[in-house]
Design brief:
Distance between the termini of chain A: 81 Å
Helix content of chain A: 55-70%
Structural class of chain A: mainly alpha
Largest sheet of chain A: 3 strands, mixed
Shape of chain A: globular
Number of helices of chain A: 23
Oligomer: homodimer
Strand content of chain A: 5-15%
Number of strands of chain A: 5
Order of helices and strands of chain A: HHHHHHHHHHHHEHEEHHHEEHHHHHHH
Strand order of the largest sheet of chain A: 1-2-3
């Protein structure tokens, strides 16, 4: 960067609130001169120059995670400008923090040299995480600068799926033997320049690297210096295999309040560790993915994705929705004769379908959540079904009666009121049944129960609702 | 508990998979003799007795968080049985871990003495967390057994709202002065019986308890023993006030990869700390609450809540849904004349409404997520609206044309095809606009943008879709 400026240092303890509004204002104001800024030219307009200096100083004070958050919140042009102005030494960290969609746009805006500089400081596991999004040439050159051990680590990490522990484990850890005194451990630690992030425990291994236990730092600090590690260490260790699912690992971290945990191979040899910061990201992504999936969004979308990218991300569920809506439409089509005779049916049928969809969504959301928490075993499904059917029956009788009376008064037709009560109750029962069965079936089939569940349940309660209501009306009112 | 049994100890390093299926089977099998078990009588049936011993041994090996998870997954009777058989010394921890709804049912099943025993081991902040759900008498007696300092801590914690940092901060922490050598700190720590959970840093305070900085254990362990704390400590500390919102605190933990952080009062005095394990719970609950709220569930529901409790938890959004469905129905009612003339309109109108609802849900879900991440400032809303309208326009023209052609062929009426294209495009534009505006307006009004957003958007796209489609048809086809 060619612009000289003073970066204010954080002198007191007050934490810096991330003023995203101000960054949005500044980057918008600077947009007209963005090409000059990116080419390193002097900005002559004094006011704009002041704004530029302010923006740079704000950005340089930000934590990489905050920079990532800011970048995600900006439209493409402002994003490129801010990315150009952010501290280049943090580029690698920022790339790790941003969402996949935004990461692609940032990497596209960088040349090979910038990319190599950005990934230079990254650990092996971090480089592996980015590798899939980087041009092959960059990955190849970045690997050349590493030693054989690190190259092997990167390749090992890249060999696992994104949802496996192996893909997010890191290789920076401290291990010791069981037969040394705590004092020796403390002396050994002092020889490190610095300890890996989140070091809350030291891993105890034998001469074959087989994990024997862990020595929590909390215990090491209060232990008698003469005491042997084997007498202080914990042996009931929550540990993982690289093939383990990250969501299950995250749930274990959550339940057992872990900060780090060892990863071992099939021979119980220590090969890496996973840390709570990665697990927090997994938990956030997992619950968010459920939410996005239920609404029929395929993946986390760049807020300011080009319109066609957004269309692509959403088209599938819209297409499925159209197909199911078409089926519902054909159901109604089959009863056109009845509707011609009593046109009120056309006005009332969406009420029956709508309450079924709403109630079904409540049921399915609850079940999807219980499944995500691992609380649903096969024997439970039947009981839950019974309970949900009970709830549906109560709701159906209450709300069905309300709407039945309203319809009776509105159309002065007692029969319509009765059909309304029956149809609403039956559609709520259908919603409850399908709301339990869809996620259970998806789960049995090895699919994510959240995926499009909202679209599916609505499809069933729409077609079902129309069929039940118009069918009953045709039988009893014609 | 009167039953003698051997509790198998965990001898090797393998972690215990939580076999929830087996616990469900055993508790169901033991249900017929549950009253004998609860009264401490001998079970004569040998097979059942074997099962009882197995269930007890499984339960006693479980971590309190796993016991909580098991309890949440069980219907009422089995839940009471398992709760009775679980290790009583962990009762307090389990009560802290279970969801609010299940906690109430567990507390109801315990008498004063059991409750007092359960909360006896809890820290001040934990007792405060439970206090709201405990009978007043129990809270009063539990406080009598504590010293004045702890009583003050419990009362302080209880004075904050559930969503404030003060309600979840804990008081167990280690603090030191800045002007001592690291060696002195290590000696000081060794005098502790044990260090508080998650101790990754020691807080540095002056003689008035004003926070000066933090000494990360990672740094302490590698520091020169002669070095003074003030030369090793970090002074740019992320710290919180007890009034701060817990969700914002959780986001800070997530961004800055924190394990613990200090809480200070208005005079910058250190009064407590918050830890990552609480924050992980906050993150999980926050994203889950968004999911439940969008579907119109008021709160996390006990899976096996009595039917009437479930009805109560869900009635409000169902009632709102009924009102909006009634409005949509009246919109259709206004066009009964048109439907009588062209009955095909009745069959086609749900397609227009349906695709609007689906697309609107996609938009609103994305916006709610961006808001939860703090990425949406006022200036952005206008741009997002422009982008979403663009996406809607493309989708409307594509899918509108598809359905327009289908309708044209199906009903052999070119006019209906054109009305279909126009109505679908307009309803998608309406969905995009309202999908952006609802959460922005909710947020401006200080309400949770996730709350019932799915029900609201569907209401607009239903009534709007019927109005647009039937309106256009009446104008152009009659």
């Amino acid at each position: 960067m060619s612009i000289e400026q003073d970066i204010p240092t954080q002198t007191d303890l007050d934490r810096l609130p991330l003023d995203i509004e101000r960054i949005h204002e500044l980057s918008e104001a600077l947009l007209p001169v963005s090409s000059q800024i990116e080419e390193g030219q002097e900005i002559e307009d004094i006011e704009l120059n002041t704004k530029l200096v302010e923006l740079i100083s704000i950005l340089h004070e930000l934590h990489p995670a905050d920079v990532a958050n800011v970048l995600e919140s900006l439209p493409p042009k402002e994003r490129t400008l801010v990315w150009h102005l952010a501290a280049p030494e943090e580029d690698g960290e920022v790339l790790l923090e941003v969402s996949d969609a935004v990461r692609e746009t940032l990497i596209e805006s960088m040349d090979t040299e910038e990319l190599l500089a950005a990934v230079d400081d990254l650990d092996a596991d971090e480089l592996a995480e980015l590798a899939g999004d980087l041009p092959h040439q960059v990955v190849y050159e970045a690997l050349q600068t590493r030693d054989a051990e690190e190259r092997a680590q990167v390749q090992a990490a890249m060999s696992y799926e994104d949802d496996q522990v192996g893909a997010i484990m890191d290789f920076e850890l401290v291990s010791i033997r069981a037969d040394v005194a705590c004092e020796v451990v403390l002396r050994y630690l002092r020889r490190f320049e610095s300890l890996p992030d989140h070091t809350d425990k030291i891993f105890v291994v034998d001469h074959d690297d087989v994990l024997q236990g862990v020595l929590p730092i909390r215990k090491l600090l209060v232990a008698d210096p003469e005491e042997l590690v084997e007498n202080v260490m914990a042996t009931d260790v929550v540990r993982f295999r690289p093939e383990d699912n990250v969501e299950e690992a995250a749930q274990a971290f959550e339940r057992y309040d872990l900060v780090t945990a060892p990863v071992v191979d099939a021979d119980k040899k220590l090969i890496g560790r996973i840390t709570i910061d990665e697990m927090v990201d997994v938990i956030r992504e997992e619950t968010e993915a459920d939410m996005l999936n239920m609404a029929g969004l395929q993946e986390e979308e760049d807020l300011f994705a080009p319109i066609l990218d957004s269309v692509k991300n959403r088209w599938m569920w819209l297409a499925i929705n159209l197909c199911t809506a078409f089926i519902a439409s054909r159901v109604i089509g089959a009863f056109e004769g009845s509707i011609e005779k009593i046109v009120a049916l056309a006005a009332l049928m969406p009420i029956v379908a709508g309450i079924g969809g709403n109630s079904g969504n409540q049921t399915i959301t609850m079940i999807v959540r219980a499944m995500a928490m691992g609380q649903l075993s096969g024997t439970q499904a039947g009981r839950l079904l019974k309970k949900e059917v009970g709830v549906a029956l109560v709701n159906g009788l209450i709300w069905g009666t309300v709407m039945g009376v309203v319809s009776w008064l509105l159309y002065d037709n007692f029969g319509i009121g009765l059909v309304m009560i029956a149809a609403m109750t039956l559609n709520l029962l259908l919603a409850a049944t399908v709301g339990v069965l869809i996620p259970v079936a998806m789960d049995k089939a090895g699919r994510d129960p959240a995926l499009g569940s909202s679209v599916l349940i609505t499809a069933v309660t729409d077609s079902g609702g129309f069929l039940i209501f118009l069918g009953l009306a045709t039988i009893f009112l014609m």
